[in-house]
Design brief:
Blueprint: E1 2-6, E2 13-22, E3 27-28, E4 34-42, E5 47-51, E6 55-56, E7 65-74, E8 80-82, E9 86-90, E10 98-104, E11 112-121, E12 127-135, E13 141-143, E14 147-153, E15 158-167, E16 174-185, E17 191-193, E18 197-203, E19 210-216, E20 218-219, E21 223-233, E22 239-247, E23 252-253, E24 258-264, E25 269-278, E26 285-296, E27 302-314, H1 320-346
Parallel strand pairs: 20-27
Antiparallel strand pairs: 1-5, 2-4, 2-7, 3-6, 7-8, 7-9, 10-11, 11-15, 12-14, 12-16, 13-15, 16-17, 16-18, 19-21, 21-25, 22-24, 22-26, 23-25, 26-27
Amino acid sequence: MSLTLENVGSAVASDTRVHLASTNADLRFGQAAEDSRYVGPWEPGQERTVSYVVTATEAARAYQYSFQVSTTFEDDRGRTVTTKPETVGVTPLPDLDFAVRDVSSNLAVGEEATIRGTLVNDGDVAARNAVVTLSTPSRTVALSESTYPVGDLEPGASAPFAFDVAVAPTAEDGPRSFSLLVAYEDDDGDAVTSDSIHLRRQVAPQPDRLELRPVNATFGVDTSNRLTVEVTNVGDEPLTDVQARLAPQPPFSSEAPTSYVARLEPGETVRMAFELTVSEDAVESDHAVAVNVTADTPDDRTVLTGPHLVPVTIAEESNPAGQEGILIAAVVVVAVVIGAGYWWLRQ
């Protein structure tokens, strides 16, 4: 709220303060009923503009309210003077109400999705340069962008909005809450933010898209191996740019943890290979190695499936060829010893 006042006296007013008091509890200066502004020296005939932050309660209506304005200053004789209060009228702008309609989403665990809707200006005044902001307290749902500009909205007008979101593969299916705010400029160019509009959207379970099966998954201790996994598209749509990545944990590690396939049709099976190292500290046991897979769908969405747990067995490495080598070496050594003894006896 801004007031423009003029010094109509014939002398300079020094150390001037302008006091403004509300006469109705529906309009307040924060929690106070009055406020003041310091303007200092004021020349005769000079106009000064002072501004106040006035809050209208929910009970306020769009009709005229009265305020009392007065000034306190020192005159040219050093006396403190307080002017008689004058009444000014203020009419709050009508409350701008927004509605959200036609909300749709396809949220699922491990999937990228879009929340769409229509914002409607249900108020009596225009909203200029309106921007929709969406937020969620969920830690497993991430928005790629949290704001969506919809521009000017006249009373009764509507505009679509859309937010791209990603649901983590570790998320649980179930409901999620979202809050929507509208920031806009009123007719005076002041920035205004609407009340929150609450949305509730459902996150579906992760769809079955891929099935993974190990082809060779028994390895010895302290070995570097080729782990081959069959990957089958069990969904009903083709997948492109399929990339699988191992997420090994001790006693496993990998120097080549990724494998790529350009396209995988529904029902098609391909083999993807990885390097898997078993540490020297490993013991004979059964394990599972996690594999995460990303792929693109026909509608240009990137999906993440996994972690898929691929069973891997650490077993004692059998090496018949090695044992035969040891036996042959032993026979050669014995033969050499016998030959040397025979030669010595001949001497």
